[in-house]
Amino acid sequence: MAINATEKPLGKVFTPDYQLSIPSFQRAYIWKPENILQLISDLEEACKSPETPYFLGSLILVREGDTSFSVIDGQQRLVSLSIIIAALRDLEHDEEWMRLLDALIVEPGDKLRGITSQPRLTLRERDAAFFREYVQEGNLEALFDMNDEDCSSNAQRNIIANTKQAYDALAQLDEEERHRFASYLVNSVTLVIVTTDDLDGAHRIFDVMNMRGLPLTPSDVFKARAMSGLPAAAVDTYASRWDDIMDPLGDDATRVEEFFRYLHLILTHKPATGKLIEDFLSDVLNQYLAGHSIEAFIDGVLAPYAMAWRILERPSDTVLPDDVRGRLEALNDYRHHEWKAVAMWALTHSFRNLGDPEVSFFAQRGSHSARDCGRTADPLGSHDRQRLGEILCALEQVTGVDMLNRRSAIDRRGHTAAAIRDLDKGFPVRLVRGLSVSAADRAGALIRLHGELQGDPDLVRLLLVRANEQRAGARIPRPRALAVVPIMPLDIASAASFSSWTADLHDYWMYRLGNMVLMQGKEGQIDRLTEYGRRRDRVLLRADSCRFPLTKQIADFNECTPAMLEYRQKETIRLLAEYWDIRYDESHADLTSKPPEQLSGDAGSRQTRGSQRVTIKQVVAAGLLIPGETLVWERPRKGERWLVTVTQEGRFRLEDGSEYASPTAAARAAGGRSAGLDVWKRTSNGEKLSDIWKAYRLRTR
């Protein structure tokens, strides 16, 4: 068994030297939006230090031919990297950059050398054609127009969701930032390529690599350096003290590294550069070593901040006051964690005994005595409770608004650094930069709430939880499984209770908050039910679903009408605006009463369309499609041909007179299968509808 291992930058992997394919026995693509967003965030941070490579792990490959390889380990990263490159290509204006990015994921071919055009990476057979057609070949507009029913596997749903999220995240960067990101991705992101000519050997390599000895963590390095600065007589005592402080944080190296990264930010007011060990030693630890005060660092800095971190990880188990626990539990609902640094600072500056090993901040199991003691004798040493409450309230407001505005990790870390800098100066909370929301941020968040929220069920779940709790006036206990389900079914063609609905109205409301409710159980449990009454009754069947007032509310409606959904939409947006305190502007005008078009001016130039679905009506209004013109979908091998006419109302009319609000819906009705923008072409000049959609997106970006 011949084994070869080399480290290469990504630009040397996505080349003709490696024709990669994922065998059918491998698991499907399972990365979720949070995984790909974390990768993008890490790369954004890393590319600020272009001279420092970013190691993305190893690929284990089995050689099948001269340049053909099967991927045994690394498929999740390879698919995600392809998605990121495809999004960068679609956002690009410069033809040369587009060509270079395209060549990373699709071999352009060379007739002279006998090289055929093909994707660099081929997925499992079930998903290969889908990934090639929509991602690798650049039909992102068609992808953005798809619904769940257009997918034949969970992997395809993950591809759609992750492509949208990657596109939205990268769209926040300006052209220069995207070019810098792309250059770093190609030249400085490295992988160790392990190749073998034997499948069994590849699996043995995989097993060995996953059982290898654990490397030193940042905590190990910092502990060793700290112990070197202590008198010999104190080393054993403080080595044990260090372990007592750090062991409860767990042995997850990534979590421990995150703790030190936030501690570095708190103490220096500087976001991490990607070189944590070097930065923490030079910016923090060396100062204590030089001052012969390592004991002060361990007792006065490490101990209280480590306890603060533990509190943030398990706030419900603490003896903290109810309002503080509630705020921390709410902050833990968010997918991004930059808020933790500010919360750590706030806790450390609000409880004098946070680092005292004799004081427990956690309730004893099976007893309420510790929590009761915390309320009466106050062994925690709490002070300035009002300021702590103000900080946590403002922190959640900023975290929620940043989430809605899709702020990048760099922006979020900038907010955190600015907030801690001003808090250290003793500024009142209302004057702390990083804990305030601008008029543009307010407007941008409200615009997002008004729009379609397709493809991000975790976001919709969080929004509905917040709206329901605002309506209830208290936190609501959540069932273990809590799903977001639409009041209307995806297909209303055969539903008598929706017979009065037009396709336009159904399309408009399908993915908006007004059409969504929380329900105990898993996603998809009422998908087969098409009648409103049966869907409503199934939602209300379980008592845990009725805990949520906006869910229980549908019991009062005997039919689902546009007026009902509009009422729910307005109420939900109003509740969310009140929760995050973004309902009113500086002159106390109610922003929730303004339509999104009026809010757009306040949102400023930073607002982007992102991957939001484009409608026929919008393209007609922009003059890129003209009422009366026709488009054709042809399948010559089957002798099939369909024509649609663009209507004045912004719809597609098939030759049988039926009308549809989206190209995908028209294609499904015509051909009886999922197809989208890329199949329709102008009869006048053969231009693809997907190119027209992209032109509209570029115009309105």
Automatic annotation (TrEMBL):
<protein>
    <submittedName>
        <fullName>DUF262 domain-containing protein</fullName>
    </submittedName>
</protein>
<feature type="domain" description="RAMA">
    <location>
        <begin position="600"/>
        <end position="699"/>
    </location>
</feature>
<dbReference type="Pfam" id="PF18755">
    <property type="entry name" value="RAMA"/>
</dbReference>
<dbReference type="InterPro" id="IPR040843">
    <property type="entry name" value="RAMA"/>
</dbReference>
<dbReference type="Pfam" id="PF03235">
    <property type="entry name" value="GmrSD_N"/>
</dbReference>
<feature type="domain" description="GmrSD restriction endonucleases N-terminal">
    <location>
        <begin position="17"/>
        <end position="225"/>
    </location>
</feature>
<feature type="region of interest" description="Disordered">
    <location>
        <begin position="591"/>
        <end position="612"/>
    </location>
</feature>
<dbReference type="InterPro" id="IPR004919">
    <property type="entry name" value="GmrSD_N"/>
</dbReference>
